[in-house]
Amino acid sequence: MSANEMCHVETTTFHNELGSEDYPFEKDRYWLFTSKVCPFAHRTEITRALTGLTDDIGLTIAGAVQTKKGWDLGGRYESADSAASPVASIDRLPDLYKLATPDYLGRASVPVLFDTKTNTIVNNESSEIIHQLDQIATQHFEHETLYPKNKQTLIDALITELADELITPIYRAGFAKDQQSYQSYFEKVFACLTKLDKRLGETNAYIAGDNLTLADVHAYPHIARFDAAYHSLYRLNKHFIRDYPNITDYMARLGEISAFCGTLDIQAVKDGYFLAWNQPTEGKFAPLGPEVNPLSGVAITVEI
Ligand SMILES: N[C@@H](CCC(=O)N[C@@H](CS)C(=O)NCC(=O)O)C(=O)O
Asked: How far apart are CA 102 and CA 246, in angstroms?
C-alpha cells in the first residue's frame, strides 16, 4: 500500500486510557497535538473546548500544511489557543513519536494525547481520546456528559454509521484508483448525506436527538470540510452540503457554539488539503458531478 493510499484511513497504535492507573488525571500533565486540517484531530479540539478542559490540558496545533517530514510543530499554527510544544527540542511530530517509542515504525498522525511527565503517548485515536476527555471532565468537574447512559447504544450506532457510510467512503472516493471504485464510494457518500438530512429533519436538533453528543463531535469536522475541500479535491461533487436543508441548519446550529466554530479555520483546511504533498491532485478519470445544462455548461440544481 502506498503512502497516499494509507493517508487518512489509518489505524492507530496507542490506546492507553487517560484516567487509568498509569495515566491518572492531573492538571497540566497531558498535552494534545493536533492540526487544523485534520478532521480527526478537530474532534479532540472540539471536545477539549466543550468539556472545559482548556485550562487543564495544553494544546499545540501543528502548521496546517503537512510536508514529507511530517507535521510541523516548530512552525506551528498561530492562534491564542495553540501554545509551543512542551517538549521544546522537538520540531516535527515524527520526532515526538520517536521520543515516546524509539522503535516506533508507524505513521506519525495527529491527534496525539501526550503525557509530559513520562514522555509517552497516551493515545492517538481520536474516537478514544474524545471519550476519555468526556469521562475525565464528568468525573473531575461538573461537566454534563456527551455520552449519556440512556443513549449510548444509539450514539455508538450513529458513530459507526458515520464512519462506515460517510467518513471512510469520503477518503476511499478521494484516493480511488479507478472509475468503478470511485463511483461506488461516491454513491455511498451521497446516500449517507441524504439519510442524515432526513434524520436531522426528524430530530430537528442534534444527530442523536435533543442533546449534543459525541455523535455530533464525529460528524461536524468532516461535514464542515465538505464544500471547501472534498467536493472538488475528492471529486465528491454531486451536491454541496448547502443543498441539504436540514444538514445546513444543523451546521449553522453547531456553528453558533464556540467549541465548534472557534476550532474551525476553513482557510487552514483549504491550505492543508490542497497544498499538502499527499493529496490526490492528479486526476486520472472524470468527476461525476456537477450536473450541468448540456447546452450551456451551466450547473443546474437537481432534486436530492
Ligand atoms: N484513526 C485516526 C486517524 C488520524 C489521521 O488519519 N490523521 C492524519 C491527518 S487527517 C495524519 O496525521 N496522518 C499522518 C500522515 O499522513 O503521515 C484518528 O481517528 O485519530
From this structure: 48
